[in-house]
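Sequence in, structure out. Go.
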Amino acid sequence: MTANRTAPQALVSATARFVAAVLVATGFALVSLGAASASHDAVQIADGRFSAPNLAHVTLPRVEIVVRRAGAGNTI
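Output:
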């Protein structure tokens, strides 16, 4: 048997791998920018809603404790 072996060849060229890596990184960056923008918009909208002048304040009735459970760590 002849020992004439060649090194295995890559199935995809280095250039194609580099281009694919750049495209994936660009995709991740765009998704991250979109999520950051959506988050910023949501905070702005929520801030506007909570600082509205017609915000209603509600006063809840007092709550009376009727029974305490035994063994809940309450020492009375």
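Check: Residues 17 and 30 are 20 Å apart (CA to CA). The chain has a mean pLDDT of 85.
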